[in-house]
Amino acid sequence: PGTEIVVNSKVLSALRIYSSTGRLVSVLQPTEQRNKICKYVWNAGKNAGGIYFARIVTEKGLLQRKMIYLK
How far apart are CA 34 and CA 43, in angstroms? Predict the structure, then answer.
């Protein structure tokens, strides 16, 4: 099972997942792009529960979102 992250962007870019301490946890490549929408899938099963941040650079600038992962 994975978490699907959808970004409205025409630029294919890697999405980076960071822990709350700033450690890079994962680098995701888009699994699908259609009509300026990129989909990423993060399988967080090996990570501890907690707060994570998803960051991506798009044509509009840096986009960052906070995520809570519960085990």
Answer: 22
